[in-house]
User: Which sequence fits this backbone?
C-alpha cells in the first residue's frame, strides 16, 4: 500500500520513499519480454545518478518508459528537478532549457539535432551482477525530502502559452494515493499497465510512472501507437491488464476491429470522451472504460464511468468551490487551492459534480450563448466527419466580435455540406466562418490541440 502524504497534517513526514514497500523482488517493469524487479531497477538508477553532472535541473527526454523511470529517479536522487516540456519538439525543449539556465538534457537515444548539453544515458540492457539482481533482504530504499521539487510539468498550450507547474515528491505521493484508491475500487489491487501516452505528460506521469513507483503496480516499457502495437504490448503482460490511453487512440482501436487480450479496464484522459465511443469500446473489448479528470496544475482529482454516470466522483479529501469564472480546487496534493476555468454544478453533498463548460469556452454573441465544446461535439456528430474542432480566433471584426473558426477531417464531404448540417443543429450566429477541410488536425502526443497550431493551420489555408 502506498504511503499517503497528507499536506494538511501538522506534522507531515519530512522524507518519503522513492519506491513503495521494501520488496526487492516485486516486478516494476515489463521490458523486452523480461520482468525487471525493483532491485534491478535501483541498480540502474544508482548507476545513472552517479554519472549525472552537477545542475539544478534536467530535461528528461527518454522515450522508452523504463529509461524514463530510471532517469526520473536518478535525477531526483541527485537532488535535481525533472523538466517535462509539453512535447519533445526542439522548439519546446529549447524554450524550457532557456527558462532554466545551467540545466542539461538527458535521453536514451542519439538525437540529431541534440539540445545543448545533451547527455546520452548508459545502456540499460547490460546484464546485472547476480548479487544485485536478486533480493538480498536490503530494505534501505532511498528516501526523498517531501518538499523537494522533483518535476516541473508544462501545460500543452491548448488554451494559450504553456505554463510551468512545480511538483514536489510529497504532492506526487498524495496524488498517487487518489489514483490508486480509484483503481483499487474499480478493478482491485494489482494491475499491469500498458500506456499509449508519453511519461512527460502529467497524465502519463501519474498513470505510468507514479503508480509503478508508489503503487506496487507493473508497467510495460513501451509506448505503443498503432492498434496492432497496442494489442501486442497488452499480450506481453499478464492479466489483469489496464490500458491507459486517450480518446484519439481509443477511437483508432475501436475502428480498427483488432482483437485485444482481456483488459480489466481502460482509463482515458486528455480530452472529453464521447459517450458513444466509451460504449463502443466496452462492447468491443468486453471491458470497463473509466475517465479521469484533472490538469497539469492539479493532477487527477476525480473519475467516472461515462456509460454509467454523467457526473464525476471526487477523490477523497478533494473539495470544489464553484465560482463565477471557474472552480477552485482543494486537494491533498495542492499546497493552496488552484482555480480552473471549468464551470461545475455540485451534487451529493459536494462529493460529485457535473461539467457545465469552461469560462474561456463560453461564447456570447448578440445576447445568445453557446460553448465551443458543444459546437465541436455537434461538428463531430455529422456523418462523415472523422475529426474536428471549433475554436475562436484572436482577431475581432469591426463590431468587436471574435470570429469562430473550425477545422474538420471529412474525406468525401465539402465545406458547404458540413455547414448545411451544422445549420440544422446550431444557431446560425455560431456557424464557424471559416470552416476548413484538412487532412489531419495538429494533435500532439496526447491528442490535444495546441492553440498556436490551430491558428497557424487556419492562417495557412487563408
Assistant:
Amino acid at each position: 500500500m502506498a504511503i499517503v502524504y497528507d499536506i494538511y497534517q501538522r506534522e507531515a513526514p519530512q522524507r518519503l520513499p522513492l519506491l513503495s514497500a521494501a520488496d526487492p523482488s516485486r516486478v516494476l517493469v515489463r521490458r523486452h519480454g523480461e520482468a525487471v524487479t525493483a532491485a534491478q531497477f535501483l541498480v540502474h538508477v544508482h548507476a545513472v545518478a552517479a554519472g549525472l553532472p552537477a545542475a539544478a535541473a534536467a530535461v528528461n527526454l527518454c522515450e522508452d518508459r523504463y529509461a524514463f523511470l530510471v532517469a526520473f529517479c536518478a535525477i531526483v536522487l541527485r537532488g535535481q528537478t525533472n523538466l517535462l516540456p509539453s512535447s519533445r519538439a526542439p522548439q519546446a525543449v529549447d524554450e524550457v532549457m532557456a527558462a532554466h539556465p545551467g540545466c542539461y538534457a538527458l535521453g536514451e537515444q542519439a538525437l540529431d539535432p541534440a539540445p545543448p548539453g545533451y547527455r546520452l544515458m548508459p545502456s540499460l540492457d547490460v546484464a546485472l551482477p547476480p548479487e544485485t539482481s536478486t533480493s538480498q533482504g536490503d530494505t534501505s530504499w532511498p528516501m526523498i525530502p517531501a518538499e523537494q521539487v522533483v518535476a516541473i510539468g508544462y501545460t500543452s498550450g491548448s488554451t494559450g502559452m504553456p505554463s510551468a507547474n512545480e511538483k514536489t515528491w510529497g504532492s506526487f505521493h498524495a496524488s498517487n494515493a487518489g489514483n490508486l484508491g480509484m483503481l483499487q475500487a474499480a478493478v482491485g489491487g494489482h494491475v499491469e499497465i500498458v500506456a499509449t501516452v508519453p511519461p512527460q505528460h502529467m497524465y502519463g506521469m501519474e498513470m505510468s510512472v507514479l503508480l509503478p513507483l508508489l503503487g506496487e503496480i507493473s508497467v510495460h516499457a513501451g509506448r505503443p501507437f498503432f492498434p496492432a502495437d497496442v494489442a501486442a504490448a497488452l499480450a506481453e503482460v499478464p492479466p489483469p491488464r489496464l490500458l491507459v490511453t486517450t480518446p484519439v487512440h481509443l477511437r483508432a482501436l475501436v475502428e480498427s476491429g483488432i482483437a485485444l487480450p482481456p483488459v480489466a479496464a481502460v482509463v482515458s484522459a486528455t480530452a472529453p470522451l464521447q459517450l458513444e465511443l466509451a460504449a463502443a469500446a466496452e462492447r468491443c473489448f468486453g471491458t470497463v472504460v473509466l475517465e479521469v479528470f484533472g490538469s497539469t496544475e492539479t493532477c487527477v482529482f476525480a473519475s467516472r464511468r461515462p456509460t454509467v454516470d454523467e457526473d464525476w466522483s471526487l477523490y477523497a479529501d478533494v473539495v470544489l468551490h464553484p465560482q463565477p469564472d471557474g472552480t477552485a480546487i482543494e486537494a491533498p496534493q495542492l499546497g493552496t487551492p488552484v482555480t480552473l476555468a471549468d464551470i461545475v454544478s455540485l451534487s451529493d453533498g459536494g462529493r460529485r459534480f457535473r461539467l457545465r463548460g469552461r469560462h474561456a469556452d463560453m461564447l456570447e454573441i448578440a445576447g445568445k450563448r453557446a460553448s465551443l465544446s458543444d459546437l465541436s461535439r455537434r461538428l463531430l456528430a455529422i456523418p462523415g466527419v472523422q475529426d474536428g474542432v471549433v475554436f475562436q480566433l484572436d482577431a475581432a471584426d469591426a463590431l468587436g466580435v471574435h470570429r469562430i473558426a473550425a477545422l474538420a477531417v471529412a474525406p468525401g464531404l465539402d465545406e458547404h455540406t458540413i455547414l448545411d448540417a451544422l445549420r440544422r443543429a446550431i444557431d446560425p450566429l455560431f456557424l464557424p466562418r471559416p470552416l476548413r477541410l484538412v487532412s489531419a488536425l495538429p494533435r500532439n502526443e496526447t491528442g490535444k490541440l495546441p492553440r498556436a497550431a490551430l491558428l497557424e493551420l487556419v492562417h495557412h489555408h487563408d
Observations:
- The longest strand covers residues 387-396.
- Residues 1-10, 130-139 have pLDDT under 50 and may be disordered.
